[in-house]
Design goal:
- The chain is an alpha/beta fold and 472 residues long.
- The protein folds into two domains: 217 residues, Rossmann fold; 165 residues, Rossmann fold (3-Layer(aba) Sandwich), CATH 3.40.50.11350.
- The chain is built from 17 helices and 15 strands.
- The strands form five sheets. It has a four-stranded parallel sheet. A four-stranded parallel sheet has the order 13-12-14-15, with helices on both faces. The protein has a three-stranded antiparallel sheet with strand order 1-3-2, with no helix packed on it.
- Helix 16 links the parallel strand 14 and strand 15.
- It binds 2-acetamido-2-deoxy-beta-D-glucopyranose.
- 2-acetamido-2-deoxy-beta-D-glucopyranose binds next to helix 11 and helix 13.
- One of its GO terms (biological process) is fucose metabolic process.
- InterPro entries: GDP-Fuc_O-FucTrfase.
- Pfam families: O-FucT.
C-alpha cells in the first residue's frame, strides 16, 4: 500500500485506526487518487468528495480508516510565488476574471466565474474585492482590498461544490514585485461595439499582471441585435476555453501596457475581462428562478463565520440583549439612496419611496410570516446609505432599529459596516429591499433560500416614488 500518487504533495490526513493485534506496527502510506490524471484536461469532480477509505493491511494486520481533508486537494505547486506561472501545475487548468464595479456586483461576477469554472472544468482563481464603492468616502481613509475568503466561507463553498477554489493571494505573493504577462479575452469590446477597450478593473495592476487582450468573437454576445445590451452568454465563453473555438478565433492581440507584449489568450489560465454581464437567457439573470449562477454557486456562498459572529454581536447590542441571548426573528429593510440619486430626474423626495410605503411592505412581510410560518417578527432593522439626519429621525419614529456603526470602521476596517449590514440582512426572516439594487436582489435570494423567508421590494423613481402615490 505504498503507492503514492506523485501528484499529491501535501494532504492533511486525519487517521483513525484500531489496532487488531497488540504490538503490531501500524502505519499507512497514503491514499490513492486519480486526481489529477496527468493527461486530463479536465478535473475529476468526484475526487473532491470527502472519502472514507478503509485499508486492511495484511502484515502487520491493522484496520486503518483514513479521512482525507478532501477540499485540500492540492491544485498549486506550493506557497505563493513571485511569478504566478511558477505556482501553476502543468496538469491543472485555471480560470480567472478581473471584476471592478462595487462589492455586490463583484461578488456576482465571481459567482459567474465559478459557474463558468464548472462549465469548463477549470479551477477558479478569485481576486480580492476592490474598494471601488469607497471612492466617495472619507479621503483620509485609504481602503485596501479585502480578500474573497475574508468575506465568504471558501472552505465550505469548495466542499459544497465539490471543487477546488483558489484565491489570487494563494497563487502570487502579495509582496511580489514581478510583473507577469498574460493573454486574456476582451469580452466587453466584442459585446459593446462602440467601446474602445476591455472593462476596467484595478485588479490586474494590483497583482502586477500585464495583460495583452484579444477581442472575443462577436458570437459571444447574448443578443446580437441589441447593440446596447451588454450581456455575453455563458456557453459562448465556455467554448473559448477549448482549443477548437479558441484557435479558430485568434486575432492580433493588443500590446500589453507595461511590457509591450502581444500574447494570445492563455490556455492554462483562461481569463476574461469582467463576467458581471454574463447570462444564459436575459440580463440580470440573478433575478430569475432559473439563474444558474445563483442555484449552482451563489446559494452556497455563505459568510465567513467570523463575520456572522460579529454580525450577531451587533444584532444583540442593537436589540439591547445580553451577549449570549437568543436573537429573536427579525425583518431588515435595505434602503439605497446614495448613488441612486443620479438616476432620479425628478425631485428626490418624490423620486425615492416614502417611509410610509416601506412600512406597508414591512407590515405585509410581518403578516405573511405570522400566517404562513407562525413567526412573530416584532424587530425591524433599517439599513441605508442615507446620510440625512432628518430622514433618520423619521425612521426612528417608526420604531425601527438602526445599527450603530460609529465604531465599526475603526475596530474592524472600512469594509465592515457594509459586510456586517449585509450579513445581518441575510440572517433575517423577512426582508424589504430597494428595487433595482443588486444588494437587495442578492439579499432577497439569501433570505428566501436560507430561511424560507418572506421578501418584498419597494419601487422608486418616476414610476414608483412619492410622485406615483400622489397620482393615485
Ligand atoms: C432630509 O430628509 C427630510 C425628511 O425626509 C426631507 O424633507 C429633506 O428634504 C431632506 N434633505 C435633503 C437635503 O435631502
Amino acid at each position: 500500500m505504498h503507492s503514492f500518487s506523485s501528484a499529491i504533495r501535501r494532504v492533511n490526513i486525519r487517521v483513525l485506526f484500531s489496532v487488531v493485534f497488540l504490538g503490531s506496527l501500524c502505519y499507512y502510506a497514503g491514499w490513492l487518487s486519480r486526481w489529477p490524471a496527468p493527461d486530463n484536461s479536465g478535473l475529476e469532480w468526484k475526487d473532491f468528495e470527502a472519502k472514507r477509505v478503509t485499508i486492511t493491511v495484511q502484515a502487520p494486520q491493522a484496520t486503518v480508516t483514513v479521512i482525507p481533508e478532501a477540499e485540500e486537494a492540492v491544485v498549486l505547486i506550493g506557497s505563493p510565488t513571485d511569478a504566478f506561472q511558477d505556482n501553476l501545475r502543468h496538469d491543472v487548468r485555471y480560470i480567472t476574471t478581473w471584476p471592478g464595479n462595487g462589492f455586490t456586483n463583484e461578488a456576482m461576477s465571481l459567482m459567474n466565474l465559478i459557474y463558468l469554472a464548472m462549465l469548463t472544468e477549470r479551477v477558479p482563481i478569485l481576486p480580492a474585492f476592490n474598494p471601488s464603492h469607497f471612492s466617495g468616502g472619507s479621503p483620509d481613509t485609504e481602503v485596501v482590498d479585502t480578500t474573497f475568503g475574508e468575506v465568504f466561507d471558501v472552505p465550505r463553498l469548495a466542499k459544497e461544490l465539490r471543487m477546488p477554489i483558489l484565491e489570487w493571494w494563494q497563487v502570487k505573493d502579495r509582496k511580489s514585485t514581478t510583473v507577469d504577462s498574460l493573454g486574456c479575452w476582451n469580452v466587453w469590446q466584442a459585446v459593446m461595439e462602440h467601446s474602445s477597450g476591455p472593462q476596467y478593473s484595478a485588479t490586474p495592476g494590483k497583482l502586477k499582471i500585464d495583460i495583452s487582450w484579444t477581442i472575443a468573437p462577436k458570437w459571444v454576445k447574448l443578443k446580437p441585435d441589441a447593440a446596447n445590451d451588454a450581456q455575453a452568454k455563458f456557453t459562448g465563453l465556455m467554448a473559448l476555453a477549448f482549443p477548437e473555438q479558441r484557435n479558430r478565433n485568434l486575432r492580433t492581440p493588443s500590446k500589453s501596457p507595461l511590457l509591450g507584449l502581444s500574447l494570445p489568450p492563455n490556455e492554462q489560465l483562461l481569463c476574461f475581462d469582467n463576467l458581471y454581464y454574463t447570462a444564459n437567457v436575459e440580463g440580470l439573470e440573478f433575478e430569475h428562478d432559473y439563474s444558474t449562477a445563483w442555484r449552482l454557486v451563489g446559494k452556497h456562498l455563505h459568510w465567513n463565520p467570523r463575520i456572522e459572529d460579529i454580525a450577531r454581536g451587533y444584532l444583540r447590542r442593537t436589540f439591547g440583549l445580553g451577549v449570549d441571548a437568543t436573537i429573536p426573528p427579525y425583518i431588515t429593510i435595505h434602503v439605497r439612496h446614495g448613488d441612486f440619486k443620479g438616476a432620479c430626474h425628478i425631485p428626490l423626495d418624490e423620486c425615492f419611496a416614502p417611509l410610509s410605503a416601506i412600512a406597508r411592505r414591512v407590515d405585509e412581510v410581518k403578516e405573511e410570516l405570522q400566517r404562513l410560518k407562525d413567526i412573530t417578527a416584532a424587530h425591524v432593522i433599517l439599513t441605508s446609505d442615507e446620510t440625512n439626519i432628518t430622514w433618520w429621525d423619521e425612521v426612528a419614529a417608526y420604531g425601527w432599529y438602526r445599527i450603530d456603526h460609529s465604531a465599526t470602521a475603526p475596530t474592524y476596517g472600512a469594509w465592515y459596516p457594509v459586510l456586517i449590514d449585509t450579513a445581518i440582512q441575510s440572517e433575517g426572516k423577512g426582508f424589504v429591499g430597494t428595487d433595482r439594487s443588486t444588494v437587495s436582489l442578492i439579499t432577497a435570494r439569501r433570505v428566501k433560500e436560507w430561511h424560507d423567508g418572506v421578501v418584498r421590494s419597494v419601487k422608486w423613481g418616476e414610476g414608483g416614488g412619492r410622485r406615483s402615490l400622489r397620482k393615485k
